[in-house]
Amino acid sequence: MQLNFRNSYGPRIWVAIMFYDPSGCGAYGSWGTRGWWAIDYGASAYVLNTNNRYAYYYAEAADGAVWAGSYGPIYVPQTAFSSCLGIGQTNARIVGLREVYIASDNHTVNLTP
Fold first, then answer.
1. How far is Cα of residue 48 from the mean position of the Cα atoms in its chain?
2. Per-residue pLDDT reduced to its tens digit, 56-92
3. What's a Pfam family in this record (predicted)?
């Protein structure tokens, strides 16, 4: 199943994700983390191919709008990253994530206000 994000909000949005990855992150909590995808208004970004129906995301817009939740939390540095849930970073913020149910083989999350 493919997970995509679409900017239906306006200002540029950056997205980070958490996904089940026991083969790559088994020793560090079994969850992978990745970011950042920069998505301009009207554009979409492919972020994940998975067999799991659930993934988690955090997003923030250039104007300060945030899509956060109670899942995770994860460490997010300012620059692009690919890590695991159980690996902390001193140069990172800690953020909570929203859950997304991947309902189809090609699922898109529309980021709106």
1. 9
2. 999 999 999 999 999 999 999 999 999 999 888 888 9
3. DUF1036
Q: How far is 57 from 64, CA to CA, in rounded Å? A: 16
Strand intervals (E) in 1-113: 2-7, 13-20, 31-39, 44-49, 54-61, 66-67, 71-77, 81-84, 92-101, 106-111
* DSSP output for 96-107: EEEEEE--SSEE
Selection from 73, 9, 19 nearest residue 47 by Cα: 19
Neighbours of 80 (CB within 10 A): 12
Output the pTM of the full model.
Answer: 0.95
